[in-house]
Amino acid sequence: MSAVTSRLSKHQHKMLLSLLGHVRLHLLYKASIHGFTAVAFHNRCDKQGPTVIVAYNAAGFVFGAYTSKDYTQSEQNVSDEEAFLYSINAEGTKTLRVAGIGRECAFTDGKNGPDYGALVFLCENKPEIKSAPGTRFNFQNAELHGEDLTLTEFEVYRVEGFGDLLAKPWRNVQWTAERKQQLMQAIQSYKPDIKTVHQARVLLVGPVGAGKSSFFNSINSLFRGNMTSQAIAGTAGRSVTSQFRTYTIKAGKGGGAIPLILCDTMGLEEKDDAGLDIEDLVNIYKGHIKDRYQFSPSNPLLADAPGYKKKVTLNDRIHCVVYVVDTCKVSLLSQKMLDKFAAIRKKTNQLGIPQILLMTKVDEACPLVAEDLKNVYRSVYIQKKARDLSESLGIPLSFVLPLKNYNEELELNQDTDILLLTAVEQMLNYADSFFEDQEPSDQLELYRSNDPLCPNLINSN
Q1: I need a surface site. Which of 295, 406, 407, 438 has the fewest CB within 10 A?
Q2: How far is residue 308's CA from residue 461's CA, in Å, rounded to a whole number?
Q3: How far apart are CA 44 and CA 204, in angstroms?
Q4: How far apart are the C-alpha atoms of 139 and 218, rounded to whole Å?
Q5: Rounded to whole angstroms, how far apart are CA atoms 373 and 364?
Q6: 3-class DSSP state of 47
Q7: Which contacts of 451-454 are long-range, i.e. CB under 8 A and separated by 24 or more positions?
């Protein structure tokens, strides 16, 4: 007899995991094989611990219910604060998670098919559902299942954890006040290897809502000593940042600038005519785009346009590129977005610019990290997401840095600061690699542009 296999596509599987967290799915029951009956369901799904129902219809929706409780046919109403209904739309572009109505039970554990009130499965032992929004769960029929109540398939999976924490962290971090001060001092005293370059220029690149602007605000707050919000950050579906911005960071209120410029851009979007254009990105790399240039995705900047800087030096060029990705959405990166990253990586490599990757929102992605940020390098889930990003984007794992930005806090936190400062330290180290890789002719060109006597000196040699 052939093995029973999941009907979930790879993409649907990733989207479902984005709702469930750091788990794996074990297929228990498949109605087209085992029968569209309550008896078949209970024979295979009772006393299995946390499970997720995955129902399919002809409209292309994948939807169902998760519970952390056992099915036991107890004929009781079961309360489960972790239970939820969900849907993946027909296009596979959006997930919906519907929490239960407060203080109401999650499901009725009877001898019939799974009964969540708002959704009842295997009605009368048929491939059908009953849908009654507002009964224990509120939703709209159109967005949950497209009002198609006939099932083409019905599956149930046991939800298994990967394990909580690694016995040893996969990176060692000193979570001390002394370490924080060491990092701050090292960053403030940094000097590029090329004497005429005074600040490392680092560009942040990533999808909309990944946390690029929030990263700058977090670093600025850290060195300022209190929360700041200079860069506009948000969670809109389209990029909040519409200009190319270069930000300096000051050590304390009224203090001197640290030797780092963080450059912010529009977010990347899947559509070719939306988000940051790759040709504009190349112009940023080469230093041709002025601060506060207003992006136009449909019209990349031309050499004769007002925002184009013709005369550039090594000071104007980007010395390190930092990709920023939301850890919660690693599994949801579409093939189009991965292709866009690959195209950017190719251009960046051609220009010899070092690259690293920041994984933001690690606390939102893993409850164990939310409880204690020091668990970031012991979390099995965070390590897995770092490896997934490394493989899918072609970036070595040693270049991937998990961190948390400041979003809702009113006060600074030492553990958050240490992860942020460690990321900045790596940016400066990689900028050094860029400076060391410059040809002598590039450095002489820099001197020529800054010293009127330099051309004569060069010509005389």
Answers
A1: 407
A2: 33
A3: 49
A4: 36
A5: 11
A6: coil
A7: none
- Residue entry with tokens 């493989």: 391
Whether residue 242 contacts residue 266, with contact meaning beta carbons closer than 8 Å, is answered with: yes
Q: Pull the structure tokens for residue 439.
A: 């040809």
| Short-list 262, 263, 258, 261, CA closest to 187 | 258
127-153 confidence digits (pLDDT tens): 999 999 999 999 999 999 999 999 999
Q: Mind listing the pLDDT tens digit for each residue in 181-230?
A: 999 999 999 999 888 899 999 999 998 888 998 999 999 999 999 888 76
Residue tagged 């599956």 (tokens): 155
Phi/psi-derived region of residue 21, left when phi > 0, alpha when psi is between -120 and 50, beta in every other case: left
Q: How far apart are CA 232 and CA 213, in angstroms?
A: 6
At residue 136, the 3 state secondary structure works out as coil
Cβ contact 259:200 at 8 Å: yes
What distance in Å separates the CA atoms of residue 284 and residue 418, rounded to the nearest whole number? 29
> Where are the domains positioned within the chain?
10-161, 177-455
User: Model pTM?
Assistant: 0.66
What the block records as the tokens of 340 is: 């866009």
What's the CA gap between 85 and 454, in Å, rounded?
70
Q: What percent of the chain has pLDDT over 70?
A: 87
**CATH class of the domain whose range is 177-455:** alpha beta
